[in-house]
Amino acid sequence: MTFLIMEFLGDETLLDYITEREQADNSKLVNCGNLDYFMNKYEPLSGTCAYISDFNTVLKKDTGKSYILNDMNLRNFLKPGSKIHRVDFEDCRQGMVEEDFGKFIAFLLTYNPAYTSWKIWMSGCIKELCKISLNLDTDKIDLETARELKCMKERRQHIF
Q1: CA dihedral defined by 66, 144, 107, 34, rounded to 10 degrees?
Q2: What is the mean pLDDT of the chain?
Q3: 88-124 burial string, b = 16+ CB within 10 Å, else e?
Q4: Residue 129 counted as domain residue
């Protein structure tokens, strides 16, 4: 017998959390040299990074192939309490986990207001976490961030 259990997780998204944190902390930026500070103060963001990495690791272990979430819209991550949950898996595909982190950083940087000092600082913290804790290639993450920013620019030109 198969069961489907549904649970209402609330409506706070990772984007809501980021918007709130940025408004509260923008004037209090600190040096991101302390990864523990980032991981503790911004646990939902570090938790999202862990989720992205764990998704790839578990599927790689189960299938022998590297799969990514691919769609890094920050509204696809729900934040009930301090936990992170993901919705919308329709764009998952094979790929390198650095692609997901590059896209994640691109989305983070471009939500309004775009490219604030807080968002730039936060993207640096995420890259540091990827390098030190997750042993990922930050050059590949930078390449994927640039690629996604270019794709975003092209998509948005078609809208207007």
Answers
A1: 90
A2: 90
A3: eeeeeeebbbbbbbbbbbbbbbbbeeeeeebbebbbe
A4: yes
What's phi and psi for 68, nearest 5 deg?
Answer: -130, 160
- For residues 45 and 11, what is the distance between their CA atoms, to the nearest angstrom? 17
Cα separation, 74 vs 44, in Å, equals 12
How many distinct structural domains can be found in the chain? 1
Residue 22 to residue 27: CA distance in whole angstroms: 9
Residue 105 lies in a domain: yes
Helices 97-110 and 138-159, axial angle in degrees (round to 10): 50
Kindly report whether the peptide bond that precedes residue 80 is cis, defined as omega within 30 degrees of 0.
Answer: no
On whether the pTM is more than 0.85, the answer is yes
Greatest pairwise CA separation for the chain in angstroms: 54
What single letter denotes the amino acid at residue 155? R
Tell me the per-residue pLDDT of 78-135, one tens digit each, with 9 for 90 and over.
Answer: 998 878 999 999 999 999 999 999 999 999 999 999 999 899 989 999 999 999 999 9
Contact 140, 131 (CB under 8 A): no
